[in-house]
Each structure stands twice: as structure tokens, then as C-alpha cells.
Amino acid sequence: METTFSEKLYIGAEWLVRLAYLQVLFFAFMIAGAGVFGLFPSLAAMMAISRQWLKGNHTSPLHKSFYNYFKQYFLVSNALGLLLSFASVGIVLYIYWFLQLGGIWSNIYIYILYLLLFITILVWIYWLPVLVHFDIKAKQIFKYALFVGMMRPHYTLLLLLLIISLYLLSLLIPGIIPILSISLIVVGWNLIIQRAFQKISEKQRQIKQV
């Protein structure tokens, strides 16, 4: 049975309201967590909820689900997120320092640091989806995030295209930034990376069957 135009319009409006409310919850819980300590658990909660939506689960109360995920991931997301933040800042500062020094050895260290920065960026992209998708130990999350990033680099490019597209859309519709921008990025982020997870799982199953 085909969906009528009015039904499609209703579904679209329902998604817009859902995404807007999710973004409101993100800011509310981030503020409640004292900003820095609320950022990563709020992102993890958004990621977990959008994962449930993509699986077809739209019935759970949004506020209650967000609160439960926020509590569940509060410690581990803060520990990993702050560790990754300090590492990233440290790498950038070292790059800046060696650029000021100059010389052959400084250039060698700079190339090494650029490689580390690239690895760190891959981990940044994948660690939150890995956290909410897999039941693995915290110390394995960064390793698995890097593994996914190295195995599926084209999904990383798709994610960058998504961010660029949303940025261009925000220029056309300025009001979208405070209302939908973060929730749209997280849902799109999850959609792309869940696909990467599926492809890796299929590949692993094929290898086991050989």
C-alpha cells in the first residue's frame, strides 16, 4: 500500500519534531553536566538514541531514554573523550613547537606527529559509534575505532560530505543551526557508520566460512 502525500508530510513533520527535541535534550544535559563533563555523555546518548531510531524503535520515551543513556555512558565517555582531547591538543602543540624549531630532525618529528594526528582524527570519528554499538571493554574502543576507520576510509569521506552538505544547507536556512544541526549530523553520522559496521561484519563472516 502506497503512502499518501499527507502521510509522508506527517512522517516528515514527526521526524523534524523528534530531531529538534533531541537537540534540546542534548544542550540541556550538556549544561546539567557542567559543560565539559556533559558534552561526551550527551553525544553518546544522542548516538545511542539515533541508533535505536535507525533500527525502527521509535516508541521509547525520548527524555527517559536520553537520561538513561546519559547515566550509562557518563563515566566511560568522559574518560575516553577527555583522554582523546588531551592527546589531540598535545599533538597539535608539539607540531606547532617543532615548526618553530625547524631543522631536519624537527621535520622528521613533524611527519610522525602528522601521522599521529591523522590516526587521532580517525579515532575521533568512530569511537562514539563503537562505544554505543559494541559491548567491549573501554580500553578496546580506541583500537576498534581505528580498525574501522582504516578498513572503511570511504565512509569517512561520506561523513565529511554530510557535514559539508549540512553546512551549505545552514547557509540557505540559517535557523537550522540552533534547531536541528547537531541532531542531523549525529543521525547521519550513525547511518553512515552503521553501514560500515555491517560491511565489516559481513566480511568477517565470509572469512570464517572460507
From TrEMBL:
Keywords: Membrane, Transmembrane, Transmembrane helix
InterPro entries the record matches: DUF624
Membrane-crossing segments per the record: 20-45, 73-96, 108-132, 144-169, 175-193
Keyword hit for Transmembrane: yes
Superkingdom to which the source organism belongs: Bacteria
Protein name (Swiss-Prot/TrEMBL): DUF624 domain-containing protein
Organism whose genome encodes this protein: Virgibacillus halodenitrificans (Bacillus halodenitrificans)
